[in-house]
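Lecture notes, unit on protein representations.

Consider one protein chain, 119 amino acids long.
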Amino acid sequence: MITNQSEVKFIEMKKNFDNLRQYNEKLLADIQLAKQKETENEHSIGIYLNKIKQLESRVKDAEYQAGEATKRIAKQVAREKMINYEKYLLESDLERTKFQDTFSRYLLEEYRAEKSNKN
C-alpha cells in the first residue's frame, strides 16, 4: 500500500512537473514572441523617427522659403508703391507744365492782341 501510494504520489508529481514544464515552455515561447515584437516595434519606431526628421526638415525648408517669398513680395510692393508715387509726381509735373504752357500761350495771345490793337 505504501508503494501504491508512493506510486500515485509520484505519478501526480510527474504530471504536475509535466504541466509546469509545458507552462514554462509556453511562457518561454511568449517571451520569445514578445522579444520579436519588441524588435519589430523598435524597427518601426526607427523608421517613423526618420520620417519625422524628414518632415521636420521639409517644414523648416518650407518656412524658410515662405519667409524669403514674403521678403520678395514686400520688396515688390515697396517698388510698386515707389513707381506709383513717381508716376504721380510725373503726372503732376506734366499737368503743371501743360498749365504753364497754356498760360504762356494765353499771355502771348494777350500780348499780341494788345500790340495789334495799338497799331
